[in-house]
Design brief:
This protein has 19 helices and 27 strands. It is 36% helix and 22% strand. Strands 3-2-4-1-10-9-11-15 form an 8-stranded antiparallel beta sheet, with helices on one face. Strands 5-6-7-8-12-13-14 form a 7-stranded antiparallel beta sheet, covered by helices on one side. A 5-stranded parallel beta sheet has the order 19-18-20-21-22, with helices on both faces. The protein has 610 residues and is α/β, with parallel strands linked by helices. It folds into 3 domains: 242 residues, Aminohydrolase, N-terminal nucleophile (Ntn) domain (Glutamine Phosphoribosylpyrophosphate, subunit 1, domain 1), CATH 3.60.20; 202 residues, Rossmann fold (3-Layer(aba) Sandwich); 159 residues, Glucose-6-phosphate isomerase like protein, domain 1 (Rossmann fold). A hairpin with a 5-residue loop joins β5 and β6. The protein binds 5-amino-5-deoxy-1-O-phosphono-D-mannitol. 5-amino-5-deoxy-1-O-phosphono-D-mannitol (M6R) binds next to α9 and α16.
Length: 610
């Protein structure tokens, strides 16, 4: 969603803001703006479109300042336009505000402010907050107190930063439901919605928590609760390098991240396998193993790609642990009065660790006393911090909006959790060892798939003009079919649906003709023969078929138009391999259509609004 960055110190803030915004652009990107205050002027520059447009405008103005804030916007209230872009300001243009989140009671707040005589130039909820702060600024004559009083009236979510001409020595920030991080420098401090924007300047960060507000000066900061009580915040060291945030010679982050999967998978399992004993060791779950193993039920909740990982997790955990597993869309879970007891374990999966629906579902499950675990990629993210225990996937930063390496690492971590729990149930040592041996062979097998990139690109070229796709798979590969379809639709804008292969005859078969490509995931598992039957059914109706098959399969290629071969592994791990050709297929189709694969239209990397 929206990205926030801010600087106070001795340098010119403008290049810091622009560079930070570029690093945040993947979060949201329909407009961008900066606001600066110096001894002679208060200035806001904003534009519709990319940060590059903003950069040109800023360069032409040649402004300098030691205090500034910047924002990239992903529209919620009001279309993407210059007037709706942030910063928003008070009427005399002396106080600037940037905001990530949604002010839910903005209509009633706006009514009161209109009655007071305030005029609005935008359609945003944020401008309402700017005027509300101004209202209290006139009463309190103090920025910190004005922000605090205004926020006491706000319902909804926010990560905000505010600067004011009459108090040019500070940035006031506050958080509720949207991420906000303070970066600690020497005679300079930073704020951002994401550590990615800070990492070029400092590795020392302070994570703001919900209900906290802080004044950031150039050489110190003071955090308080929204009720004005002082709090002491811990400074964390972030282990992230600037190289990890670059494209590393690839044309797109998405391709880089697909190609990184041998490494990301290795990092997800590094130090976590004990072959001799046939067990996995997960430090983040230490002390919780018995409680998980004795749960009446495991619920896994997530959104999007992470929800697809949850579905694979359901198959894994039920097969190996015998514990009943349910998978829930976080957005549904949070609102449908779910029956949760303290005997349940609820696992929340989120790459970003900031997805609003998943975070809210976590809070709901916590309230009901369940053991809440997080599987996150971003270290220190809200879901990671709110969970009682959990496992980081250690996939490294994922910048491309389409999730790829995070998905395979989520599956890998789910297999480690499965092994951990299953060994406390009926899985014996040699069986555990067999799983570990397969895990250890995985990265080499991924490399073999990635070597087929050129072949997959050639196959993709033959499908670029298609308007619809079906993806079909069974068992462990039903969620992979869903994920393959999601990858294609989100970056290529081609309509694609995933189904369990056997469901085809209950409806989707009516769509099949020589115009409808069908992607089958047909590796050799217990339902292989049945999937071959489904392939025959599509063939009989002249559908075009692309099949993902195992290396030793020479039968399916006689039936279908194209095959992509993947090495064989145990069923539980096979999705980690079979999804990779689908990631590459989606990538190449989108690139051939001339689309921006890293920043597809209407999407954001981190969905911090409901
Ligand atoms: O950060 P999260 O894993 O919680 O994000 C969940 C979804 O928003 C995300 O997976 C989304 O579906 C991706 N664009 C998929 O590629």
């Amino acid at each position: 969603m929206c990205g926030i960055v801010g600087y106070i110190g001795e340098k010119n803030s403008v290049p810091v803001l622009i560079e930070g915004l570029k690093r945040l652009e993947y979060r949201g990107y329909d407009s961008a703006g900066i606001g600066i205050i110096n001894t002679t002027e208060c200035k806001v520059i904003k534009t519709k479109g990319k940060v590059a447009e903003l950069e040109k405008l800023v360069q032409s103005e040649n402004i300098k300042s030691n205090l500034g804030i910047g924002h990239t916007r992903w529209a919620t209230h009001g279309e993407p336009s210059m007037k709706n872009a942030h910063p928003h300001m008070n009427e005399d243009k002396t106080m600037f505000l940037i905001h990530n989140g949604i002010i839910e009671n903005y209509v009633s707040l706006k009514k009161g402010l209109l009655e007071e005589g305030y005029k609005f130039v935008s359609e945003t909820d944020t401008e309402v907050l700017a005027h509300l702060i101004d209202h209290y600024l006139k009463i309190k004559n103090n920025l910190f107190q004005a922000v605090r009083y205004a926020l006491n009236e706000v319902e909804g979510t926010y990560g905000i930063a505010v600067i004011y001409k009459n108090e040019p020595d500070k940035i006031v920030v506050a958080k509720k439901g949207s991420p906000l991080v303070i970066g600690i420098g020497k005679n300079e401090n930073f704020i951002a919605s994401d550590v990615n924007a800070l990492i070029a300047h400092t590795s020392q960060v302070v994570y703001m928590e919900d209900g906290e507000i802080a004044e950031i000066f150039k050489d110190h900061f003071q955090a308080k609760t929204i009720a004005d009580e002082n709090i002491i915040k811990e400074i964390h060291e972030v282990d992230l390098s600037i190289d990890e945030l670059s494209k590393g010679g690839y044309p797109h982050y998405m391709l880089k991240e697909i190609m990184e999967q041998p490494d990301s998978l290795f990092n997800s399992m590094r130090g976590r396998l004990v072959l001799k004993e046939g067990i996995s060791k997960l430090g983040g779950l230490q002390g919780f193993e018995e409680r998980i193993a004795n749960s009446d039920r495991i619920i896994i909740s997530a959104c999007g790609t992470s929800w697809h990982a949850a579905l694979v997790g359901e198959y894994m955990l039920e097969q190996y642990t015998g514990i009943p597993v349910e998978v829930e869309y976080a957005s549904e879970f949070r609102y449908r009065h779910p029956i949760i007891t303290p005997n349940d374990t609820v696992i929340f999966i989120s790459q970003s660790g900031e997805t609003a629906d998943t975070l809210a579902a976590l809070k709901e499950a916590k309230k009901k006393g369940a053991l809440c675990l997080g599987i996150c990629n971003v270290v220190g993210s809200s879901i990671a911090r709110e969970s009682e225990a959990g496992v980081y996937i250690h996939a490294g930063p994922e910048i491309g909006v389409a999730s790829t390496k995070a998905f395979t690492s989520q599956l890998l971590v789910l297999s480690l959790i499965t092994l951990l729990i299953a060994r406390r149930k009926s899985l014996n040592q040699p069986e555990g060892q067999e799983i570990i041996e397969e895990l250890q062979k995985l990265t080499h097998k991924v490399e073999l798939i990635l070597k087929q990139n050129e072949l997959i690109e050639k196959i993709a070229a033959q499908y670029v003009e298609c308007r619809n796709f079906l993806y079909l798979g069974r068992g462990y590969h039903f969620p992979v079919a869903l994920e393959g379809a999601l990858k294609l639709k989100e970056i290529s804008y081609i309509h694609a649906e995933g189904y369990p292969a056997a469901e085809m005859k209950h409806g989707p078969i009516a769509l099949i003709d020589d115009d409808m490509p069908v992607v089958f995931i047909a590796t050799k598992d217990s339902v292989y023969e049945k999937v071959v039957n489904n392939i025959e059914e599509v063939k009989a109706r002249k559908g075009r078929i692309l099949a993902i098959v195992n290396e030793d399969d020479n039968e399916i290629e006689k039936l279908v138009d194209h095959v992509i071969k993947v090495p064989k592994t145990i069923n539980m791990l096979q999705p980690i391999l079979s999804v990779i050709p689908l990631q590459l297929l989606a990538y190449h189709i989108a690139v051939k259509k001339g689309l921006n694969v890293d920043q597809p239209r209407n999407l954001a990397k981190s969905v911090t609004v409901e």
